Amino acid sequence: MESRKVTKTLEDQWVVERRVREIYDYFYSISPNSLSDLIELERDKHFDYLSQGLRKLGPSFSVLDASRPWLCYWILHSIALLGESIGAKLENDATDFLTRCQDKDGGYGGGPGQMPHLATTYAAVNSLITLGKPEALSSINREKLYTFLLRMKDASGGFRMHDGGEVDVRACYTAISVANILNIVDDELIHGVGNYILSCQTYEGGIAGEPGSEAHGGYTFCGLAAMILINEVNRLDLLGLIDWVVFRQGVEGGFQGRTNKLVDGCYSFWQGAVVFLIQRLNLVVHEQLGLSNDLSTESADDSSESELSDEEEHLEGTSSHVQETFPLGQEGAGQDNASDSPKIADTGHEFINRPIAMRPLFDSMYLQQYVLLCSQIEVGGFRDKPGKGRDYYHTCYCLSGLSIAQYSWTDEADSPPLPRDVFGPYSKCLLEQVHPLFNVELDRYYEARKYFSGL
């Protein structure tokens, strides 16, 4: 009998599983009376780590010279999720720096004087929204930013990351996200975007960065979120997407980004948010399953429920009288027959304020356990996995994913989760809620929406 070939990836997987098992074995060996100290979210240490990075970074960060708006976003967003503030001086300094990253012809570069790029534009806009002050919001030149977005528009329907740059799903999402949250999105910007993203959905069900590539957690989030924001999510194969993403949660409790890859704390958000978004697509999922949408109401026929398969039962809605914001037959938000659909610029608000009509399709407590026990660093910050070092990127997306998991059982936006849905001591571990389409703290999103809708 031929022996199985042991690959480097398989060896690495065994190492990760062993390290995680050791952490969990120790955790479950502790007396229940002592567990609360072990699973506490180290708020003060995380805040110290983050605020120190906002003030000054060491020489090793010079390699991220073209990613400075990202560093601002990762740090500011993490602090907002902790429910902390940074003080007036740091707020003014951050606003001033990001303003100097804004190109005279629109968009934001990786630093002052650098060429505008959609990724750093997204990071800069989200940072300014997180800062939240009128000075920060008013610093955004929306007219020139819109011109920049149009300049990045590609004949394929997608967007380029920068002048002469690559066309991919990430560019589509960052462009549409920025345009939507700033209230400058229109039919010209979204034209063809849905066709491009649809061409990137793979045979596995996930979404790749570009046509013909491998399904990937980050691109899947970008593609799904963009399709929701342009009101064309019904065009995706959501059943295939669900089938792909639920199998990305591994034995460790965290998510992997691709098939046969290792767990990574950042996918707590990228994959966790995908599942969270799907929870609000109840009627679209039912339509693609060939089920009556009456199943999402209290008047569902008992005999029909008894005939559901295990998968269909898991997908069945648990909230009653849910209204579908996105009409099932609609293929574009700009069509004349779309009068009953939300305005393009308000899809983010309509979506987050819909009740969650579906139980989580992932183990939210197991994900929280991985983030707090395996990704959290005791001295502050979060890491990819045991054996890795902390960084601001993983701190941001581990906290974002932790928030997603905590709020995955709440029926409506602005409703706090129940203590039973939060891993660890409630008052010590509960984070602020994120808007899952933009990954900004929810209250900051509401403030920005009010500000930009009044212009």
Automatic annotation (TrEMBL):
Protein origin, superkingdom: Eukaryota
Keyword rRNA-binding: no
Domain Prenyltransferase alpha-alpha toroid positions: 41-440
Broad EC category: transferase
Pfam family, one: Prenyltrans
GO biological process, one term: prenylation
Known partners and oligomeric status: Heterodimer of FTA and FTB.
UniProt name for this protein: Protein farnesyltransferase subunit beta
Organism per entry: Solanum tuberosum
The encoding gene: LOC102589815
